Amino acid sequence: MTSALANPPSNTHMRPDLTILYVGKNSGTSRHRALSLSRLGHNVQIVDPSGFLPSGRLLDYWKHHTGALGWGGFIRSHVLAAIRFTKFDLVWVDSGDLICAELVRDLKRQARFVINYNIDDPYGPRDGSKWRLYLRSVPFYDLVVVVRTCNVAEAINAGARDVMRVHMSSDEIAHAPRRLSPGDLAKWRSEVAFIGTWMPERGPFLARLVELGVPLTIWGDRWSKAEEWPILKPHWCSPGLWNHEDYAMAVQCAKVCIGLLSKGNRDLCTTRSFEIPQLGGVLCAERTSEHLALYTENVEAVFWNDPDECAEKCKRLVSDEAWRNQVAQKGQLRSIRNGTTNENVVKQIVACAFDRVREEAVVSK
Q: Same domain for 45 and 164?
């Protein structure tokens, strides 16, 4: 059974005070989703499985390249110790790269329903063995939630009992526009900004923009690994903006924000596609079917097919204040109309879960 993106569950009137165990990172967009569940009135307990592991680059490398080989049982015991014998209405496992199948079965004994939500592409080739535990656990979740159309059939083929596809989302609080002071503008102002981590395909793209005269500013990690670093270094400003206040300031103070996809993740949009318009920024991103469905081109966002077209669009936006302001304002209004914010999306997911609970209750009578 699958739930299509265009047909969210109709019943959104479940109890507003569910007890929810949230098993996921207590940082970044994962924390944003947990907090959105709390804002909806639910009683949420966060257990961060990564917090039970020692920190360090060597362990991070091991987790990524072996799928946390040898750590699944360790995580399982610590999660169960953290919750003891507490009963929950719902367990939300975010990502799930550290969660073994045995732990999912344990959690199902302590909750009416166990969901997995994964914003990454665990079925694609980019991350190698990282998703070893996740893929073994897929058949044991009551509902697997994905954010890419291609992942629906892939999750079913991996044994998922039920799959729901939703959009990625911005956050009502983390991505609410800030009031900017003169000091904020002086610190964060840029002409054309890219905020994101280095990936192999991104270096040549941004280097081409520089060659074409785009006044580029880059915030992000690992850029010194790029072969194009000598070209990009003068345009690199700082490591990744992991603090959402800093990120919001950088987006709002840029005249144009470039949205690059992760080719390895088979993206047709990214979280930036939702966060930038929500913050009132100008989204200038690759022309894809999903971007075109989300925003009217040249009215609510600006799209391109290659770096040369991107450079032309960026330079025109920088010089045309009226058009730039129109895109920012209309893009923000469209983002609100789209409903692609955390509270809306998690409400749909939880509603879908309890639709399934009621359906199973009827069948079992």
A: yes
Do 108 and 92 share a structural domain? yes
CB atoms within 10 A of CB 264: 14
CA–CA distances in Å: residue 345 to residues 147, 164, 280, 289, 295: 11, 11, 20, 21, 18
Same domain as 148, residue 189: no
Please check the confidence at residue 360 and state whether its pLDDT lies above 80: no
Asked if pLDDT for residue 182 goes beyond 60, the answer is: yes
State the CB neighbour count (10 A cutoff) for residue 208.
Answer: 17
For residue 175, pLDDT over 60 is answered with: yes
DSSP label at residue 95:
S
**Has residue 285 got a pLDDT over 70?**
yes
What CATH code is carried by the domain that includes residue 350?
3.40.50.2000
Question: Domain span at residue 328?
Answer: 182-338
Distance between CA atoms of residues 39 and 46, nearest Å: 14
Please determine, for residue 8, whether its predicted confidence score (pLDDT) is greater than 90: no
How many domains are contained in the chain?
2
Residue 176 domain flag: no
Rounded to an integer, what distance in angstroms lies between the CA atom of residue 82 and that of residue 106?
Answer: 13
The pairing of beta strand 254-259 with beta strand 283-286: parallel
The reply to whether 126 and 273 lie within a common domain is no
Q: Which candidate, 34, 137, 115, 32, places its Cα nearest to that of 351?
A: 115
**pLDDT (tens digit per residue) in 68-105:** 999 999 999 999 999 999 999 999 999 999 999 999 99
10 and 153, same domain (yes or no): yes
Distance CA 156, CA 285 (A): 31
**pLDDT tens per residue, range 254-273:** 999 999 998 888 999 999 99
